[in-house]
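fwd from M.: "can u put these together and see what the complex looks like"

so here's what she sent:
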Amino acid sequence: MTDAAIGAHGRVDDESDLDLVGRWQAGDQRAATRLVERHADSLARFVASLGAREQVGDIVQDTFIRAFGSIDGFRGESTLRTWLFTIARRLVLDHRRAMRRRGAQVEVKDGDLRTQFDPLDALVADESQQRLRDAVARLTPTQREVFGLRVSEGMSYKEIADAVGTTDGAARVHYHHAMRAIKEFLDD
Amino acid sequence: MTDCSNGELRDLLPDFLHGQLAPLARERVEAHLRGCDECRAELALLGSLRRTLSHAPAMDVAAITAAIPAYRPAARRAWTGWRAAAAITLLAAGGTSVAVMQRNGERARDTLAPVAQVVPVTVDLPPTAALPTAVATVPSVIPAPMTAHQAAPRELALGSSAVVELSDRELSALLADLESIEALPSPEVEPLPVTPVAPRGSN
């Protein structure tokens, strides 16, 4: 997928991420808005999939603040999207460590993925969706992370490897192990 | 649910789901799907999982954008805070010279020391302040030892013309110091410690 995306008003947005970064550095704050529009929802899904649902808004906002604040350090070795996901992932890990220091339970439990963000959704969620959530909740944290990035965001194994700090090959193995585990659960 | 034995095709299913395949690859996957029950089932499962995993609260784009600070280039950031205080302290000395003095025949010392005391003045330096001038008088600005054949006394005069009086070697060392300064964190503004130094070899 190229950097071009559907903008907030449904128009195809042809400006690349790097073009928008350049415009923002030149003083155009609208370019920052477009970058946030382009990546905020996928970051939110990713953060939520890591179990930090109650801090999704804060972590996504922090991600953008840190990314824009250190944009000069972005060397373009990965895509901007991958870089944002890397920052978000570190923030989630920092949050988990802070929670552990406070003695709070931070591991994603089986039931975590069952809870809906919109209470109304909980009333209409059907059993098959529930089974799928149960299946994903039983994955290991790494499998869940890799699987989520591959299936929800369509990231390549290279992008996933850069974001989570592993290799392309390991990301591919985690994905297929996750898919196998989900199929086995659903077949039971 | 069994897996298709064609691992390469299975690897392409998420990309196919997201419409990310080039036309040729997409046609290849479509042709495979027409004849493979396992891959059709896996693709359907991927679609369901994608919908399942898409739950997340809507993000407030305006609030996030409002929280993003305006861009400040890294070079400008380096010349605020204590670095600015250091710079203005030295400029406030009003052109006081820092002399690198060597007695004839003596081996060189490897540090440069101020010979005049300056009064520290803490002032915010605008980001456009000239970089090399103020740093020129920071002690040990020339880290490499000076050799005996450079025994002739030299003088590094502060002020607007200071840089042009530096030798190539001194200028290179000064630039190296500038780079190390930019790598340092930004503590609160502090006045520089000042150590009065007696002329070398006076004993």
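replying to her w this: Chain A has a mean pLDDT of 83.
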